[in-house]
């Protein structure tokens, strides 16, 4: 068994309303990391984290399960937590052991009651948290509507760092607003190809990137000063990503 330093171990809680897709997401993470050799499914009753007979029959998580993956030489303990009110005590106690929370939101239903509850848990434990909008390939899913719903409920700093390529059955990848590249999955869903942003999404990506940079600058007085003083050109030594592309109309200067 491989031994990891404590600094190389991360505990990430997957939390959210019931049936938002946490267990399916955990299965995808395990498959993409090579921890399993096939993509398991809740409907088939063969997922790693929902292994109890009652969970398999009900197709829902009753108690938290832990699955480990290795990514970039770090060990990530994925905590697949329950999403229904009856089992929320287990979710809360599990989040006490987490380093961060990945809050899963259904791209069709949007923010639900337990979405707000697990947010409260994460706030109580002062956990860094990220929203994951799931099921974007489903009929009636809507990234824009769900993202706006999240911002309305949790504040304007809940801001997208990725954009979907396509919608519903045409959903085919994402645009990363940090690297400003498109990521298109392969046939096995465990690998992806990095490509240029589709022309139809470039303007929206530039606009979203500008909003993301501004929100990041506002989080720190020193960064905000640099942002206001230098505009778009911010040193790679002080900025969390290598370059800034604030607007298609105002090309970035070369970082000092």
Give the topology, please:
Layout: E1 9-16, H1 22-32, H2 53-58, E2 65-71, E3 74-80, H3 88-95, E4 100-106, H4 113-124, E5 129-134, H5 143-154, E6 162-165, E7 173-176, E8 181-185, E9 192-195, H6 199-218, H7 221-230
Parallel strand pairs: 1-3, 1-4, 4-5
Antiparallel strand pairs: 2-3, 6-7, 7-8, 8-9
Structural summary, described in words:
The chain is α/β, with parallel strands linked by helices. The chain has a domain at about 1-160: 3-Layer(aba) Sandwich (Rossmann fold). It is built from seven helices and nine strands. The strands form two sheets. The protein has a five-stranded mixed sheet with strand order 2-3-1-4-5, sandwiched between helices. It is globular and about 60 Å long.
Keywords:
256 residues; alpha/beta; Rossmann fold; five-stranded mixed beta sheet; four-stranded antiparallel beta sheet; disordered C terminus
Radius of gyration, whole Å: 19 Å
How many strand elements?
9
Strand order of the largest sheet: 2-3-1-4-5
Beta content comes to 15-25%
> Which word captures the global form?
globular
**Residue share in helix:** 25-40%
Find the CATH topology of the domain at 1-158.
Answer: Rossmann fold
What is the straight-line distance between the termini? 46 Å
Task: Please name the fourth-level CATH homologous superfamily of the domain at 1-158.
Answer: P-loop containing nucleotide triphosphate hydrolases
Mean pLDDT: 88
User: Largest sheet, described in full?
Assistant: 5 strands, mixed
Structural class by secondary-structure content: alpha/beta
SSE sequence, one letter per element: EHHEEHEHEHEEEEHH
Taking pLDDT < 50 over at least 5 consecutive residues as the criterion, the unreliable ranges are: 233-256
Q: What is the CATH C level class of the domain at 1-158, in words?
A: Alpha Beta
Task: Examine the secondary-structure arrangement and name the CATH architecture of the domain at 1-158.
Answer: 3-Layer(aba) Sandwich
């Amino acid at each position: 068994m491989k031994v990891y330093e404590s600094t190389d171990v991360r505990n990430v809680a997957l939390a959210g309303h019931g049936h938002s897709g946490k267990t399916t997401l955990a299965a995808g993470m395990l498959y993409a990391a090579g921890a399993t050799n096939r993509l398991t499914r809740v409907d088939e009753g063969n997922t790693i984290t929902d292994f109890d007979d009652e969970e398999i029959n009900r197709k829902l998580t009753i108690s938290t399960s832990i699955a480990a993956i290795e990514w970039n030489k770090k060990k990530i303990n994925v905590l697949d937590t329950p999403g229904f009110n009856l089992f929320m005590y287990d979710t809360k106690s599990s989040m006490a052991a987490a380093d961060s929370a990945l809050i899963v939101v259904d791209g069709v239903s949007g923010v639900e009651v337990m979405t707000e509850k697990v947010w409260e848990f994460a706030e109580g434990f002062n956990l860094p948290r990220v929203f994951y909008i799931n099921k974007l390939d489903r009929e009636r899913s809507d990234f824009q509507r769900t993202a706006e719903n999240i911002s309305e409920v949790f504040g304007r700093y809940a801001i997208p760092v990725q954009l979907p390529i396509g919608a519903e059955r045409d959903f085919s990848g994402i645009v990363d607003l940090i690297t400003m590249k498109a990521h298109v999955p392969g046939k096995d869903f465990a690998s992806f190809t990095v490509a240029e942003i589709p022309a139809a999404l470039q303007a929206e990506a530039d606009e979203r990137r500008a909003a993301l940079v501004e929100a990041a600058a506002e989080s720190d007085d020193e960064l905000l000063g640099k942002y206001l003083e230098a505009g778009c050109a911010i040193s790679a030594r002080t900025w969390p990503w290598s370059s800034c592309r604030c607007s298609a109309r105002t090309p970035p200067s070369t970082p000092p």
